[in-house]
Design brief:
This protein has 264 residues and is an alpha/beta fold. The chain has helices at residues 4-9, 17-27, 52-59, 83-89, 100-108, 145-148, 176-183, 199-203, 225-232, 259-263, and strands at residues 67-71, 92-96, 114-116, 119-120, 127-132, 139-143, 168-174, 187-193, 212-219, 237-242, 251-256. It has a single domain (10-119, 176-263), classed as Vaccinia Virus protein VP39 (Rossmann fold). The chain has a seven-stranded mixed β-sheet, sandwiched between helices. Strands 4-7-5-6 form a four-stranded mixed β-sheet.
Length: 264
């Protein structure tokens, strides 16, 4: 028996075969064929990120053919931290976007990376949550009622957007490690994490001894920089840059302690 309900209620481990197979069978979209042209709104824009892509590439000595995972990928173009890497430096990777409208646009961009319409779990096992749709600032609200066995008091399930459509949905989440296993890649050159407030909880689900993540950018303006630093330093990472986020891109840049010596 391998169903979503069984998987969620039994809190299956991140590497459980049912979890991995469910991701592959139900959620994982393959990369577009390399010969298929991109379909972009601004094809002549060099780098749509707020400086993250080129900062990471500078640290990585303009590495080509790297591998990324971008969580909070939006439509795959607007403010993308990885599109420049993919188009210009022959990188590939994984794009995770929970907002279903944005994800549909992401698929239409013909990105040359895997894509999943899910959220990252805040626990080290799969969960279902209520998710507020709000384009670039959509976010997890709290665990779905049937999983918790209680009526939600904090989240208004009947909340509507301006068009009269519900903007609160139930959404499936998977741990980051499960997604990496489903794709068959635990070595990551760049991990972009921007999920509007749950970044630290997500980082705490990662079995760091089982993955090889070279660099990260993590949005800090919800939790603050110091809690992220306090968590990442004992894991073997140091801060090598920051975006202060006066408009967009309030990110802190981490690299694994030994990565500089491996690259330079």
């Amino acid at each position: 028996m391998c169903t979503l309900e069984w998987m969620n209620l039994n809190r299956l481990q991140q590497n459980h075969p049912c979890v991995i197979e469910t991701i592959r069978r139900r959620y994982l979209h393959p990369p577009a064929d390399p010969d298929v042209p991109y379909v972009l709104q601004a094809p002549n824009a060099s780098d749509p990120s707020a400086g993250q892509a080129k900062s990471i590439l500078k640290y990585l000595a303009n590495q080509t053919e790297g591998f990324f995972i971008e969580c909070g990928a939006l439509d795959g173009e607007h403010l993308s931290n990885t599109l420049y890497m993919e188009r210009t430096m022959q990188w590939s990777g994984i794009l995770v976007e929970a907002d279903q409208t944005s994800f549909g646009k992401l698929l239409s961009r013909r990105r040359k990376s895997y894509a999943l319409p899910v959220c990252l779990s805040l626990e080290p096992y799969p969960t279902q949550v209520t998710f507020k749709i709000a384009y670039a600032v959509g976010s997890i609200q709290e665990p779905a009622d049937y999983v918790q066995g209680k009526k939600s008091k904090k989240t208004n399930q009947g909340e509507k957007d301006k068009g009269g459509n519900s903007n609160i949905i139930t959404l499936q989440c998977f741990p980051l490690y499960s997604i990496l296993l489903a794709v068959g890649r635990t070595k990551v050159d760049f991990f972009s994490l921007d999920v509007e407030g749950h970044e630290l909880k997500i980082l705490k689900t990662i079995p760091w001894h089982k993955v090889d993540i070279k660099t990260l950018t993590v949005e800090w303006d919800h939790v603050g920089q110091q809690p992220l630093i306090d968590y990442m330093e004992p894991k073997g990472y140091y801060v090598f840059g920051r975006n202060e986020g006066t408009t967009v891109g309030a990110d802190i840049f981490f690299a694994r302690n030994d990565s500089f010596h491996l690259i330079h």
